[in-house]
């Protein structure tokens, strides 16, 4: 029932956006070359689906994204679990992280292209940087907030590493880690597109740049909308994984 209601709300929201979009075109009498109509964008999307262009660029982008994001998530979670328990070490590392974290990953693009060349590697590195810090900081924060009662109980039961980390600390810190995964997946997807605009010859970002150079704004908007939908689906996938893990650990019911 809730899923049906959410789907209904999404459809209503999409219809409202389309109506406003078309209304702006009618009222302002703007040229279609500058702001394509929803129908033109729909036709452009269908044409790219039929000729395979959209699927080709999407598969390339998704491959880069999965490599960069999964690598960042695993390394950030493992490092965060360690640093969250090592307060003195984190006290040294934290200032370094706080200096690097605000720097947009795309700012490293000149060095990344020089070091890794043109192709898949620059986009993957940018995705890694974009998602690493949110996941790391969320993991460290989650580990720090683990209830001391759990740790005392584990000590009384003589639970040692690695069982302490896998059975007690990780499940207790998981809500914070999941929040970091949500943030990381959004920033990684955003900077994937940016990375493909400067250091790649394929992918959804490159598709938008190529369409812009051809002055095909209908293709540009089609690419933008598709990227937004993909980002939404990726976030939903993370939420489903989070819920599945919570069910496995008995943190929530399967209702």
Quick structural overview:
With 255 residues, the chain is an all-alpha fold. The protein has 10 helices and no strands.
Describe how the helices and strands are arranged:
Layout: H1 2-28, H2 38-50, H3 53-85, H4 87-100, H5 109-116, H6 120-144, H7 148-156, H8 163-199, H9 204-213, H10 217-248
Helix pairs in contact: 2-10, 3-6, 3-8, 3-9, 5-6, 6-8, 8-9, 8-10, 9-10
Q: How far apart, in Å, are the first and last alpha carbons?
A: 11 Å
* Number of DSSP E strands: 0
Looking at CATH, the homologous superfamily is MetI-like
Provide the succession of SSEs: HHHHHHHHHH
Measured by DSSP, the beta-strand proportion falls in: under 5%
What is the arithmetic mean of pLDDT? 83
Structural class: mainly alpha
CATH top level label: Mainly Alpha
CATH fold assignment = MetI-like fold
The count of domains is 1
- Using only CA atoms, what is the Rg? 22 Å
* Morphology: globular
Helix content: over 70%
What's the number of helices?
10
List low-pLDDT spans.
none
CATH architecture: Orthogonal Bundle
Report on this structure.
This protein has helices at residues 2-28, 38-50, 53-85, 87-100, 109-116, 120-144, 148-156, 163-199, 204-213, 217-248. By secondary structure, it is an all-alpha fold. The chain has a single domain (47-248), classed as MetI-like (MetI-like fold), CATH 1.10.3720.10. It is globular, with a radius of gyration of 22 Å. It starts with a helix and ends in a 7-residue tail after the last helix.
